[in-house]
Design goal:
It is a single chain. The chain contains nine helices and two strands, in the order H-H-H-E-E-H-H-H-H-H-H. By secondary structure, the protein is mostly helical. It has a two-stranded antiparallel sheet with strand order 1-2. Strand 1 and strand 2 form a beta hairpin. The chain is elongated and about 195 Å long.
Length: about 500
């Protein structure tokens, strides 16, 4: 805004002077623009707050750096203890894991075999008719199996409990170290949502973020000066409007009314109550031209002040977030230090836990190995039992075949006997027809007897082979053949 009554080149014709109403509207708009003084004051508050944040951030960063240095110095020793504790865990866990895997495999094989016995139902034709269906497992005493498995599980559970204690202790130890390392690896003082600070390299290649607050504060101060200058130009424009109205006929009363209730802090150069000093027409014309030009720029100046304060508010939010992140980082480093103290107080327990596991596992391992042989023998017996039942079905199939062959021989013999019987009967009838009338009936009592007949039947006291379906027998044959092939490979 010009807001000046300096001389301008003379014009051929002067425009008509603005009316009192126009000048009053300019004054009203200018008075409204003076409310920007609140934004200027807000800008000063923001700068003071930012300066305070700068001071606190320096203190917080120094404290965090001191704690970080102390933690880093102890971390090397902590990692050494961790490696030793991990070695104890691995050496003990490897042997435990091998035995447990062998035990689990044997246990699973036994369970699979027992499941096979449970799922294999004995053919109902092999059992009495009134008996409910039974599986192969129903003919085995499961009590001994359960007792053996219970003994093994007790030893395994005892070892597993010791192993679990070791794992939990070392997992907690490892988690504490990892948490401390994660805290130390996070960039110092870098906020998660704020302007990214510049960095410079340190001898240990660790990036050291530079606080963005000084640059932001410098930018804020520049904006504050611009706002103050803009507010000063608005005040000069208001003074010019006030002078123009007072120089206009009938404008004195309007000036007194319109200047009431000005914002605090808007210092006017023009005395509203005193009468203005007379000015010449040329000077008045130049004043009105400057006023008209400035009136078009009032809103633009107000918007510029508003843009400045909005930008400063955003910068203050970024600074506040940055300081909050510094406080958060300091709290994290403090927590890491407390965690370091906790880990240090538990180092002895961490190391001792591994030896406790090894000792307890040696005791339980002897018990487990002793039962493993029994478990293997039991598995072999059940596998043989299941295979023997398949061979039983195959044997039944063989006996069925032999019975069928015997029945075929019997049936063939019976057909031949029937043929001979019919032939003999026919010839006997022919003989009676030819010679019966000539022979006395009592010459041979057997003359009219029927031919001799034979009967073939199984012997008493011998049961027939159960009628097992061919599909059942065929499946048993395939299983037996598969087992033989598997044993040969």
């Amino acid at each position: 805004m010009v807001s000046s009554t300096s001389s301008t080149p003379p014009r051929l014709a002067s425009p008509a002077p603005p009316s009192l109403e126009t000048l009053v509207s300019h004054l009203v708009a200018s008075k409204r623009s003076l409310s920007s003084v609140e934004q200027v004051w807000r800008g000063h508050e923001i700068i003071e707050t930012t300066r305070f944040h700068l001071e606190t951030s320096v203190t917080t960063t120094a404290r965090s750096s001191f704690l970080r240095s102390g933690i880093a110095a102890q971390l090397h020793t902590l990692k050494h203890v961790h490696r030793h504790s991990k070695l104890v865990e691995v050496e003990g866990a490897q042997e435990y894991g091998e035995v447990m895997r062998t035990l689990d495999e044997a246990d699973q094989r036994l369970k699979d075999t027992m499941d096979g016995l449970r799922s294999t139902m004995v053919e109902i034709r092999l059992r009495p008719g009134s008996e409910k269906p039974k599986s192969l497992m129903d003919f085995v005493d499961e009590g001994s199996v359960d007792k053996l498995l219970t003994t093994i599980r007790e030893s395994a559970n005892a070892a597993q409990f010791a192993h679990q204690e070791l794992l939990e202790a070392n997992r907690s130890f490892s988690d504490d170290i990892r948490q401390i390392e994660e805290i130390l690896k996070s960039p110092k003082g870098q906020p998660s949502e704020s302007p990214t600070p510049q960095t410079h390299e340190q001898p240990n290649d660790e990036a050291m973020p530079v606080s963005p607050i000084p640059d932001i504060l410098q930018d804020m101060e520049g904006r504050s000066r611009d706002m103050a200058e803009n507010l000063e130009s608005l005040v000069r424009h208001f003074d010019l409007c006030l002078m123009a109205i007072k120089q206009t006929e009938g404008g004195g009363d309007a000036a007194l009314q319109l200047t009431a209730g000005l914002p605090d802090g808007a210092r006017l150069e023009e005395d509203v109550a005193n009468a203005p000093e007379p000015i010449g027409d040329q000077e008045r014309q130049e004043m009105l031209e400057v006023l008209a030009t400035d009136a078009d720029q009032v809103e633009e100046v107000v918007m510029e002040i508003r843009d400045h304060i909005n930008a400063m508010e955003a910068q203050l939010a970024a600074v506040t977030a940055y300081v909050a992140q510094l406080d958060h980082e300091y709290a994290k480093v403090t927590a890491a230090f407390r965690l370091l103290e906790k880990v240090g107080s538990e180092l002895h327990a961490f190391v001792a836990q591994g030896q406790i596991f090894v000792t307890r596992w040696d005791e339980e391992k002897a018990k487990v190995n002793e039962r493993m042989d029994e478990l293997s023998s039991l598995e072999e017996f059940y596998v043989g039992y299941l295979g023997a039942y398949d061979n039983l079905l195959v044997e039944i199939g063989r006996r069925q075949f032999m019975e069928q062959q015997m029945e075929k021989v019997v049936q063939e013999s019976m057909r031949k006997l029937d043929t001979l019987y019919e032939e003999d009967s026919a010839r006997r009838e022919s003989f009676r027809h030819d010679y019966g009338d000539f022979l006395p009936m009592d010459i041979w009592p057997g003359l009219t007897d029927a031919p001799l007949q034979f009967e073939t039947r199984p012997m008493d006291g011998v049961e027939r082979v159960p009628d097992i379906s061919k599909s059942v027998i065929q499946r048993a044959i395939r299983r037996v053949q598969g087992s033989r092939r598997q044993s040969m490979t």
